[in-house]
Amino acid sequence: MKKMKPSFSHFLVTLIALALAKMPHLVLCYHDYNEALIKSILFFEGQRSGYLPQDQRVGWRAHSGLGDGSDHGLDLTGGYYDAGDNVKFNFPMAFTTTMLAWSVVEFGDLMPPTELRSCLVAIKWATDYLLKTVSKPNRIYVQVGDPISDHNCWERPEDMDTKRTVYVVDAPNPASDVAGETAAALAAASMAFRSADRGYSETLLRNAVSAFQFADNYRGAYSDNLDVRGGACPFYCDFDGYQDELLWGAAWLRRATEDDTYLNYVESNAHTLGADDNINEFGWDNKHAGLNVLVSKEVLEGSTYSLQLYKSSADSFMCTLIPETSSFHIDYTPGGLIYRPGGSNLQHATTISFLLLVYAKYLDRTSQTVNCGAVSVGAATLRRIAQRQVNYILGENPMGMSYMVGYSLKYPQKIHHRGSSLPSIKDHPQPIACKQGSTYFNSSQPNPNVHIGAVVGGPGEDDLYDDNRADFRKSEPTTYINAPFVGALAYFNANPSPL
After folding, report:
1. Handedness of CA 487, 490, 491, 496 (dihedral sign)
2. Cα–Cα dist 32/394, whole Å
3. Would you call 227 a catalytic residue per the annotation?
4. Catalytic residue at 128?
5. Which of 100, 116, 161, 252 could staple 184 via S-S, CB 3.0–4.6 A?
6. What is the pTM of this model?
7. Of residues 146, 177, 238, 467, which has the active-site annotation?
8. 295 pLDDT exceeds 90?
9. Quick check: is 2 in a domain?
10. Domain Glycoside hydrolase family spans what residues (predicted)?
11. Closest by alpha carbon to 41, among 290, 382, 406?
């Protein structure tokens, strides 16, 4: 990996981090958002599957998964490993892609040119793969790799000898969730590439339309298919229903095409597909809060009052985050981190921070505020909440720890990640077999390969973090934690004003 020359600002951050490590009650006053942005995008190169290009910067990785799809006479190489394992789960991968693309759509103009290019490269690594998965009409490939055999091993992706099972859904069997999210990803990416590569943008949009048609024509959850369920569950089952992905996919197609057909779909299906459930959640499985923010843009701009239901839900969600309002009910840790029970908590902090910034942008552009009962909330308040979350992740927390690997001096050293925790194939050319990797998994030593930019699952509700490779809920990075963080960092890099 190419080393970056330390700047004075980086030196300053290091000194502050050292002081904070000794006196954790202190808070950081400065963050190098540009450094964090660069590293948050670089992370995706360490998650790549397939043939790695010559300009690959993460040097401890090499080619992997080169036979993916070959048992079926297919080329399903490429894409991303979603976390610390070696499986390609398309449901979270598509959501990751949507969030990277949305980051460019909303904040790409704020990114330095080199990082905008790097972000587009990261998106294209995913979309090139996703295009392969929907290349046949009424068929979608939803996963590559058997998770049971994979999770029974601790081996580098370059050494993989586990089953590379291909999971596929054909009509009339349904896959509305994965196909709907894939449609959203391709539509959002078509917008991200519109200026950079018009031809590729059109290809993405054309495939987004066909993926959505499959999702809508054959409704149901992909993990309800018996042939898929054994591979998807319990890892990335559809736990919250497929209906939100249909609205989400249609909303992105509306945004990308400005076609009233999709506007009518989002409007007419709001009640039947659960848009009025007002679910305050956003992530790889539940799109409701993100959907409401996305659709609200048109309402705030005054063009489509018929979508008021979505804006009301978006406003309600924002109010739940404001301690001064009567609607406040989101949990925060004592140190100020948004907290929801379950694994990989920082996925909630990064997605919610992103939504806060996007909604603040929409409010600013239309000179509006959110009415939270007796309290009127403006864009500045939403941005302050988002910045507190971003700063917490970067080290402004009771542990004085950056939860982004490689940022600051104090960060997780023993992350739950196979490639990071095992010697690089370049340093240790001999294969490390399935169970041989257990020695490295059980080691008390730091990972030999620093997975720069990886944001881990994060601390518990008590703000405590044990640097423990075995505690995957806290120590495992995921692509869908990082993806929305890219957009948030892009904003604060351009607008680093203190709270």
Report:
1. positive
2. 9
3. no
4. no
5. 252
6. 0.93
7. 467
8. yes
9. no
10. 33-489
11. 406
